[in-house]
Amino acid sequence: MATEEQKNKPEVEEKDVNASEEVVEATTELSAEEVKASTEATTEDTENVSEEVSGDTGSADLPFVIGKKAGMTRIFDENGRDYPTTVIEIAPCYVTQIKTLKNDGYSSVQLGFDEIPDRKVKQTQKGHLSKSGVSSVRNFKEFRTDSDSDVKLGSRVDASIFELGDFVAATGTSKGRGFAGHMKRHGFGGGRRSHGKNSVMRKAGSIGAGSDPSRVWLGTRMAGRFGNDRVTVKNLEVIRVDVESNLVFIKGAVPGAKNGFIYLVK
Known about the structure:
Layout lengths: L1 H53 L9 E13 L5 E8 L3 E7 L1 H4 L3 E8 L7 H8 L6 E8 L11 E2 L9 E7 L2 E5 L1 H5 L37 E4 L2 E13 L4 E5 L9 E5 L1
Antiparallel strand pairs: 1-2, 1-12, 2-11, 3-4, 3-6, 4-5, 7-10, 7-12, 8-9, 10-11
């Protein structure tokens, strides 16, 4: 009997080893599947988070945008009539902040414009831009809205929001002309050039009576700093849109010098 038990014992041990190997293989397969599933889930979560943080949420249809004045040209129609035109470069703007009536007391959308190298971005601006996933912009402008906007942070705004025939209001900083006299600043005509007048051709004239009121009225037009003011021109017509080059052609003059920032509102 002892001999038969010794003979049967290796067979039992071999069966136990085979069973344990099958269990190990099954466990390995299950663990591999679990790891694969968890890896896929982690990858999806990472992609979703990266999409939210990167700000790649497509383009937004907003009635305002920031542009840069590229210069002036003229455009001819089919009848040969030419129109003086201002060319505005609409480099992509990004939504960097959204204010709501509940949190901030009013509704607005902040756009960022004018991309620069990362090394030139201030640390405070980096912290502000990190919320929207936008980087390397330095010019910001907040536009008020009537109600809370459903646009997403990081959305892009470009020239595609404009169509032919749109009327816009252009806001910019006029050219600074330094300290100018009353004739150049206010368009005064000067004094008479005949009938015995001498050295009064470019004089400002009287600035008030001597006895009453015995002072100069506030706001009297005199010489002073001319230009460098915030100017808005309304009802300018869009006569051409180049979406590929992000250029908008506006009929008429727009305040400011070349490369100056222009804020367009439909």
